[in-house]
Design goal:
It is built from three helices and four strands. The strands form two sheets. It has a two-stranded antiparallel ribbon with strand order 1-2. It has a two-stranded antiparallel sheet with strand order 3-4. A hairpin with a 5-residue loop joins strand 1 and strand 2.
Length: 93
């Protein structure tokens, strides 16, 4: 209840806009989050049609979620993917 009164008081006095309060709340939440998160995702099978009606199967990884946004990735960003044996590194450009 005290928190609501604080926001209401600041809003009435015009000290902070809605966007500033939202950003401040987001920053407070972020500072308590751990820097490293471990995600477990499934590798799917993807079939590709080849000549003469033959199909080849390859592994496919699908990634989506708020955790990507929290990691700094946004829609339309360019990424660099480096891969080696048993390791894939995705970096925002």
């Amino acid at each position: 209840m005290v928190k609501n009164q604080f926001v209401k008081l600041n809003f009435e006095q015009g000290r902070t806009s809605f966007a500033e309060r939202k950003n401040q709340k987001y920053m407070e939440i972020c500072k308590y989050k751990s820097k490293t998160k471990i995600r477990s995702i499934k590798i799917y099978e993807r079939d590709f049609k080849r000549a003469s009606f033959h199909y080849m199967s390859y592994p496919e990884i699908r990634m989506a979620g708020k955790w990507l946004q929290d990691s700094g990735f946004r829609t339309g960003d360019q990424v660099v993917i480096k891969h080696s044996k048993k390791r894939i590194v995705i970096t925002k450009v």
